[in-house]
Structure formats: structure tokens, C-alpha cells
Amino acid sequence: AGADTVKRAVELDVASRFQESLVCYQEGIDLLLRVVKATKDETKKHRYRQKISENPVTIFSDGKYHKQIRIEENATGFGYEKVFQEYLTEIVSEVWVEDPYIRHIHQASRYLLYNFLRFCEMLVKGPCKVKTIHLLTSYDEGSGKNQQISGLEEIGQSLRNHGVTLNVEFSSSIHDREIRFNNGWMIKIGRGLDYFKKPQGRFSIGYCDFDLRPCHETTVDVFHTKHTKKM
């Protein structure tokens, strides 16, 4: 019953029925906690506690909506589809990405342009009908600048083949990381799109499938612009 109630809460959450969703979250977690207290098997207790901790924290304060997901160090199963898919409804046609480090090679040789490319691939697959992607980032340093610009131009050309326009702007003062959809959802990730660890090798599990790639510890905060200040 507790699991079914939490599942219903998620459905209400996605449908933007936030107050009803909050009630279901509270009832569902309360039911699950009762099961934990009544269970003597320590293995089952641990599994139930883990399930409870995996549920996103939904907070309502003065009418504002805020959902927070914490990604633990080395956690897997947090590919871009897992994080973004539920907010990519069919009405999404425009996306804004603000991330200062969409570059060719950054710390620990992490290929951030490939991360952005995979994010774009997710948008192209749908179910949304994205027509325009706006990227605000900063220039790479030194010799990496030409590679960065060349890579973004190549991504832009490929997107045009799928009917999507990529608009790129550069800023030397940008430091925030956030992604916005024109259906009102705004997602802030502490590490931006670069929350995956470097793969052990080009032929290691997780190199191609981000769901299997271990993550760095970070926090995902989800807001809806209906309940936030106008930007």
C-alpha cells in the first residue's frame, strides 16, 4: 500500500497537482516507515529504508515547488533520461542550457562536449518536439578554444539535420548551471551535465550507456517557474 501511494504521488507530481502529490508522498512514506518498524528481518529493514531514501524530497513553502534528488558518490542509474525525461512533455519545443564548462577537454580529461551531445540526442529522441536549443557557456582556455568551437558547430549542423536549431552564446562571467524547458520546468544540477565519472576505458561498461556510468556526488534541484521568481 505504501509503495502504491508513493507511485500515485509521483503521477500527481508529474501532472503538476502538487498539493495532492505532497499528501500522497507523506502518506506513502508513513506507511513504509510503519512496515520498517514492524519488520524484524534486518536485511528487509535495510532494503525498505533504502527504498524510502530513494524517493525524491518534495518541499512546499509559501506556495513554491521544489523537488530535490541527491545522487550519491559512485551511484549508477542516473543517465540523462532518468533525470530529465519526466519533464520533457510533448509541448516542450525550446530548451535553455547554461553551463560554463561545455568544452572539449576539462579536468581529468572528461569530454564535456560529448555530454552535451548526449543530452541533445535525448532531446531529439522525444517525446518532446524540440525545435531550438540555447546554450550559454564559456570559452575553453588556450588551444582548446578552436576545438570547442569546431565541436559545437558540428553538433549544430547535426541538429539541423533533425530540424533543431542550436544557438550558442559565450560569457566570461557565467558560473551558474541550470537547464530550463519552455513548459516551465527548471533543473539545477550542482555539477551541471558533468556529473559522471571518467570511464575506465573506451571498452568498459558504462562508456556508452550513462545509466551504467558511476556518478560523482551531486544534488539535482527541480523547480517550476510558476512557483519561482520571473528570471
UniProtKB/TrEMBL annotation:
CDD domains: MIT_C (cd02685). Residues 3-54 form the MIT domain. One of its GO terms (biological process) is midbody abscission. Residues 77-224 form the MITD1 C-terminal phospholipase D-like domain. It comes from the Eukaryota. InterPro entries: MIT_dom (IPR007330), MIT_dom_sf (IPR036181), MIT_domain_contain_protein1 (IPR052817), MITD1_C (IPR032341), MITD1_C_sf (IPR038113). GO terms for cellular component: midbody. SUPFAM superfamilies: MIT domain. PANTHER family: MIT DOMAIN-CONTAINING PROTEIN 1. This is MITD1 protein. It comes from Urocolius indicus (Red-faced mousebird).
